[in-house]
Amino acid sequence: MESYQGIKDLWEEKRAFTARAYVAGGICLLLLVLLAARMADLQLLQHGYYSGRADDNRMRLIPVPPVRGLIYDRNGALLAQNMPSFELQIVPEQVDRLDDTLARLGQLVRLDPEDLTRFRERLHKTPRYRPVTLRSNLSADEVARFELNRYDFAGQGVEVNAGLVRAYPLGKQAAHLIGYVSGITDADYATLNESDYQGINQIGKVGIEKSHEDQLRGLPGTKVVEANAAGRPLRELDYKAGQPGRNLYLSIDARLQAVAEQALGPLDGAAVAIDPRNGEVLALVSKPGFDPGLFVEGIDSAGYHALLEDPDRPLYNRALLGTYPPGSTIKPFMALAGLIAGTLTPATRVFDPGYFQLPGNDRKYRCWRRQGHGWVDLDTAIAKSCDVYFYQAALNMGLERIDAVLGQFGYGRISGLDIPSERSGLLPTREWKRRIYRQAWFPGETINIGIGQGYLTVTPLQLAQAAARMAMRGAGFKPHLVHAVEDPATHRLVPVAPEPLPPVEARDPAVFEQVISAMQLVTMTQGGTAYSVFKSAPYSSAGKTGTAQVTGLRQDETYAPKLDTVQYQFRDHALFIAFAPVDQPQIAVAVVAEHAGHGGTSAAPVARALMDQYLLGKVLYNAPAVAPAAPPVEPEAPDTAPQAAPPDAADGAAAVPGAPPPADAGGNVPPQ
Amino acid sequence: MNSSVITAAPKPELSWSERLARWHFDLWLGLLLLAVSGLGLFVLYSASGQSLPTVISQAQRLAIGVAVMVVLAQAPPEFYRAAAPWFYGFALLLLLAVAALGQHAKGAQRWLDLGVMRFQPSELMKLATPIAVAAYLQSRHLPPSAGTLLVSLGLTLLPTALIAIQPDLGTALLVLTAGVLALFFGGLRWRWILLAAAGVAGAAPLLWMKLHDYQRNRLLTFLDPERDPLGAGYHITQSKIAIGSGGLFGKGWLMGTQAKLDFLPEAHTDFIFAVYGEELGLIGVVLLLALYTAIVGRCLLIALRGQDTFQRLLAGSLGLTFFIYVFINCGMVIGLVPVVGVPLPLVSYGGTSMVSLLAGFGMLMSIQTHRKLLAS
Predict the structure, then answer these.
(1) How many beta-carbon pairs under 8 angstroms link A with B?
(2) B 196-225 residues with CB below 8 A of A?
(3) What is the mean pLDDT of chain A?
C-alpha cells in the first residue's frame, strides 16, 4: 500500500471521481424520491386506512352488562334478586397452560373438584374468547390473596370480577315458576343476537326468567377505552349507557306459594290458584321442587343427572306439563254441557243401579258405589259424584257437544300463560282418533269421558282456569303471571291488562247457577265429598273432588283396592277444583296430588289452605301432612256407607286401563 | 513606489464559517448535524415514553460524539491515510476478540465489555474499512485492475464476514457498503459492477442457506408482512400503521398512540422514524429527509473538493454510507426494505453508532478544513 507502480493520472482520477460522484448523487436523489413517494403514499393516500388501523389498535369496546331486572310478587316481596359476588374467571384463549394456571390458582383460592369439573364442562360450552367462571362467591380473603399474586397471572386471562349473582329467596317453593338463569351455552348463542349479550354470561333458562328474558335482561352499554398493546385500559374515551333490565311484578302471592308448598307436604303434585276476575295466577306450585341456585352457580353434570333421573322428577313443572285424567272434576262441566245442549235439566233423574249399560250391549260401566245411588238428580249426581248419571249425560250429548263446551273452558288447548312450555292436554275428537289410531270412535269412549277418564287429559293449570271460568259464570281471562312491568330508571309501572276471553256460550245464564249450586253441595253440605275439609270455612265455596285412575284394575278386581295395599306408583291421583266466595269469586284453585288416592282427603285441604290464606289472610285450617286413607266424610253421614274406600276413590274404576287404551276395551269391564 | 500610496490592505473580514474552519470545524456540516441530532432528541423524548433519563443519556453520547468529531477533525487527512493499516489491523483484532470472547446480546455476539462501557468493535470497522480501501486505492493505479479489485474486496469482505457471523447483518451490510462505495468512487469499471450484481443474484440462494432463521423470517416477512401479522410481520405492520396514521401534519409531538401505547416495538431505537412520522406527519418527514439530503450533499461537495484520491474516496464513501444508513432505516420502517438492524443515524437511541458516525464526520471536517493551496 505504501507505493505503487506506474504513473497515476491524477487528473483522470479526479475526473473519474467527479463523474462517479454525480452518478452516486443521482442515485441518492432517485432513492430519496422513492422514499418520499412511499411516505406520501402512506401518509396521504392511505392515511384514512391507517388511521382506522391505529384506532382499532388502541380503542377497545368494553361491554357494560346491564343489571338484570328484579322479580317481585304482587305484594312487593322479592322472588329474584341480584347479590354482589366476586367471581374468578378465565378467558380460555388467553391461557397457555391451563393446568398449570389452575394449579397455581388452587393455592390462592379454594377450588373444589366440583368447581374444576364444572369449569371444564363450561369450557366446552363457551366460545374461547368469553370468560368462563371458575369460582363464584369468592371470600374477601380469597380476593385479597389473588390480588396480591396477580402479577403471577399477568397476560393469562385470569381475572377477578365483581359481579352480581342471581338469587331466589323462595328457593324450591317457586323454582318452576320463576325458573333460573344459567350460563349461556353455544346452543343459546345459536339463537340469540350476540350484541344483546355483550358482557352478559347468563341467560334465563326456565320459567319467568326465560319467558321474560328480553325484558329482564336490559341492554348492555359500551365503554370505549384506550388500551395499550397489552390490552390494559388506560383511559375512558366514550361511554354509552345501556339499559337496565325491567323489574317484573308478578301476580303471584309469595305467601300463597309457600302455603301451597307446605300444604302439599310430602306429596308430589301441583297446585294452581287463579284470580277469576282477571286471570292473574296467584300461586303456581309443582312438587317436588329443586334449588334454582344450583343452576345459577352452574350445576355439574353428575348433579344434573341426579335431578334428571330422580323418580319424582323434580325438574318437571307439573302445573303446566303434567297431564292427568280430570276424573270426577269434569262432572260439573259435563253437567253444564248437558244443560247448555238441552239434553239435561236440573230435574233430569237417572236411576243408578250401580252400573250402566249401553242399549244392546251387556258390558257394564260401573258406578264407584257398588250398590248404586238409586234415583239421582243433577244436584245429587254432583254432590255424590254419581258415575251412572254422567255416563247417561255423556251418551245423551254425544262427543261433539261435550267437546264444544269443554273446549270453551280451555280443555285441550294451550292456555297462553306467559311462561313457556305448557302442555295442551287432550280433548279427544273423532278426527283425532282416526288420525292417531286409524279407528272409529266408539260410544263407550264417550261414556268414559263423561266421568273424566279415557283419552281426556288436562293440566292443573287448565283445571284452575276452568274452575275460574265456572266461578265467573262463563266469563274469563287469559291466565297470566306478570302483573306489571317497572322501568327501574323512572320507576314507572306499566300494568299488564287482563285479556278477556270469549265467554262460554249459554243461552240461559241460569245454567251456571244450577251447576254452581250443585258444586256448593260438595263443600258446604253434609255428605258432600269435600264437606269435612271446608265445613268451618267462614266463606262460601263451590268445588268438586276427583280421582284419576293411574292404572286399570285387573279383570278379577271389582273395586278399587284400599289405598295402602297398592304400590305407590299405581295409586290414583287425587284432584280437587274449587272457587270462593261463590257469589263474588276471588280465587279459583286446582290441586293435583299424585298417587294420593282421593281428592277430598289430600287435594282439598291444600285448596282450603290457599283460600284461607288468600281470603282471610291466615291459615285457619291445618292441612294434614300426609293424607290419611281414612274416609273424609262425616261418619254420621246417612247416605254414605262408612266404607274403607273413600267415596270418590273408585269413581274412575270403570275407566279403561292405562293410556292409550285399546279402543274396543273402552269400559269393557266384566259384570259383577 | 510611494509608500504613502501603499495603504495597508484592509484585513479581510472573516466569515463565521472561515473562522470556524481555522478550528477545523465545518460550519454547514456542523449545523446540519446539530439540527438532525436536536430533532432526534425531541423525537426520542416522545418515543421513549417521555423518559428524560433516556434523552439525557443520548445527549451525553451526542456530546461525546461531537467531542470525538472535533478532535478527529484536527488531524490532517494524511494522518488517517498513514494510520490506515494500523487502524484497520486494530479493528480487525478487536473483531476477532469479540468472536472469541464477546458478550451475548439478543442472541448475537457483538459487544466487547471494556469495563467502562460496552463497545462494539464493528462500529470501528465502519470507519476502518473505507479508510483502508481508500488508502489502498490511493496507492494504486486507477481505475483498479483485477488485482487491486481483489485486494480491496478482501479488505472489505474480511470484516464484513466477521461481523456477519456475530451475527449483525445491518452493520455487516454498512461495512460492505462503505468498502464497495470506495471502490465505486475509485472508478471500478461498470462491467465489473454488472458482473458483481449478476454474481450476487446468483449467489443469493447460497446466501439464503447461510442465514439464521430469524434473518430468513425477516426477509420473508418483508416480502409479505401479513404472512405473520402477530409475529415477525408485526413490526412492519405496526410501523406502517404509525406512519400512515400520521397523515400530512402528524398527530403532534407526544400525541402518537402507536408508540405511547406500546403497539410499535423498538420505538426508540430502530423504529424511531415511525414515531417521527406519526407525530410530525409528512411535513416533518420531508423536513428530516431534506436535512439528511443536505448532509449527504455537503459530504459529496467536500469529496469533490478533496485534494487527493484518498480524501475523495473516503469522503465520498462516508457520505454515501450515511445516506445508505438513512435509506435502509426509513425504507425498512415503511416496508420498502427488509428489516435489518440499522438505526436511523443521529436519531435512534444507541451508543456506539452515534459516536462512530460523528467520528466519520470529524474526518470529513478534517478533509474540508485541511485544504492546502495547490496550483491549479
Answers:
(1) 153
(2) none
(3) 83
What are the pLDDT digits (tens) for A138-154? 888 888 888 888 877 87
Number of structural domains found in chain A: 2
For residue B368, the SS3 value is helix
Q: What residue spans define the domains of chain B?
A: 34-74+211-370, 92-201
pLDDT at residue B228, rounded to an integer: 62
Q: Which residue has the higher pLDDT, A555 or A304?
A: A304
Residue (of B245, B225, B253, B249) closest to A59 by Cα position: B245
Q: Are B130 and B181 in contact (CB under 8 A)?
A: yes
Pick the residue of A17, A49, A228, A234 with the most B CBs within 10 A to test the interface with B by mutation. Answer: A17
- Which of A8, A42, A229 is the closest to B261 by Cβ? A229
Q: How many CA atoms lie within 13 A of B233 on its CB side?
A: 12
pLDDT of residue A628: 38
> Could you give the residue numbers annotated as active site of A?
328
Within-domain flag for A272: yes
C-alpha cell at A325: 285424567
Task: Give Cβ neighbours of residue A226 (< 8 Å, ≥ 6 apart).
Answer: A58, A59, A60, A233, A234, A235, A236, A237, B257, B261
Interface probe with A: pick from B148, B192, B245, most Cβ of A within 10 Å: B245
Phi, then psi, of B174 in degrees rounded to 5: -70, -40
Cβ pair A226, A49 in contact under 8 A: no
**Alpha-carbon span B271 to A265, nearest angstrom:** 77
Indicate the Cα dihedral angle A283, A284, A290, A293, nearest 10°: -60
Residue B118 confidence (pLDDT): 58
Nearest to B241 among A6, A7, A54 (CB): A54
Residue A33, min C-alpha distance to chain B (Å): 10
Per the domain annotation, does A40 fall within a domain? yes
Domain assignment of residue A551, given as a range: 254-665
Q: Which CATH number is A275's domain given?
A: 3.40.710.10
Give CA separation, A619 vs A32, A256, A622, B182, in Å: 96, 10, 7, 110
Confidence at A35, pLDDT banded by 50, 70, 90: very high
Query: At B272, is the secondary structure helix, strand, or coil?
Result: helix
Residue A42 to residue B240, Cβ atoms within 8 A: yes
